[in-house]
Design brief:
Largest sheet: 7 strands, parallel
CATH topology of the largest domain: Rossmann fold
Order of helices and strands: EHEHEHEHEHEEHEEEHEEHEHH
Distance between the termini: 42 Å
Number of strands: 13
Helix content: 25-40%
Strand order of the largest sheet: 3-2-1-4-5-6-11
CATH superfamily of the largest domain: NAD(P)-binding Rossmann-like Domain
Radius of gyration: 19 Å
Structural class: alpha/beta
CATH class of the largest domain: Alpha Beta
Shape: globular
Number of domains: 2
Bound molecules: NADP nicotinamide-adenine-dinucleotide phosphate
Number of helices: 10
CATH architecture of the largest domain: 3-Layer(aba) Sandwich
Length: 327
Amino acid sequence: MKTALITGVTGQDGAYLSKLLLGRGYRVFGIVPRSTRYAYDNLDYLGVTSSVDFLDGDMADQGSLLRAVRQTRPDEIYNLAAQSFVAISWDQASLTTEVNALGALYLLEAMRSFVPRAKFYQASTSEMYGSAHVKGCQTEGTPFHPRSPYAISKLYAYWMTVNFRESYRMFCCNGILFNHESPIRGREFVTRKITEGVARIEAGLQKKIGLGNLDSKRDWGFAGDYVEAMRLMLQRKDPGDYIICTGKNHSIREFLDEAFRCIGIRDWKPYVFIDPSHKRPADVVNLKGRCDRARRELGWKPKVGFKELVRMMVEADRERVNSSSVR
Ligand code: NAP
């Protein structure tokens, strides 16, 4: 039986990855900070809470990570924990750096000390490309140009992961994932804000949704598909860095079109307003990836398309609203 240690186990990806690994017979340990935001809601939603072994720990506390790795001796380590909300990262830049950048270093050091032959996955992000305006798509070879404290902290963790691979010949991979969503996406993220808002507007519980730049474009996939790629990276003979994406991007306007269409509304303008507080000091307007390497070397490709994803999220939020759990 393989053992996996997951940081960020209570988040969106942590929950989907736990379900995937448990289904494949892994023993799954998850590190949970004392002040957890989601508690076990996401793991409960996927029905796996009772199958995960939890350990107290925090990415900002090196000792707790050292203990977790020493105690569990994992075969695979998935570093998914993060202050993951880009907008907050300007207001909490040092916390974001501590958790996302130094946290990754602490975990890599713990692995080097206790299980140097284990395999390490770092949750890197398309935000690292930022304003790298490349006509067409971003690939693994596109130069980075991060535009937020979040993206900069992730770039540090990216290079530290590469550096441990090159310096100590450890099996360390970066998954450079483009945006991925699901019914358990955090409610502060734009996609979930829209799908929950749509469900609440339909139920008469909310009048309007306040949003930022409607012209921003993202390459959106389904989290359930993307965690498969994480596992596949760690099953390779050699470690590497892989972009995971759909290769298609859509604007927030297009997301609104699809989400409101699910409740029979074609003109969503009366239900949406531009909230200036969502304006970012530096924006990333256009991200679209190419995952040729993942297709070729991992045999991975996305299964859920854009329209199906939006519908899945709206339906889940309608169900929640109707069962009154988010009223
Ligand atoms: P998420 O839902 O926000 O989950 C983040 C997890 O990190 C939560 O379990 C959170 O716990 C935990 N965490 C936060 N601070 C921590 C700390 N100090 N110590 C220990 N754990 C801490 O994010 P996600 O969408 O699952 O994303 C997973 C990873 O992929 C993140 O690193 C994210 O930056 C990266 N990523 C995500 C996307 C995307 O589109 N979803 C794209 C590219 C990369 P609490 O919430 O309980 O505090």
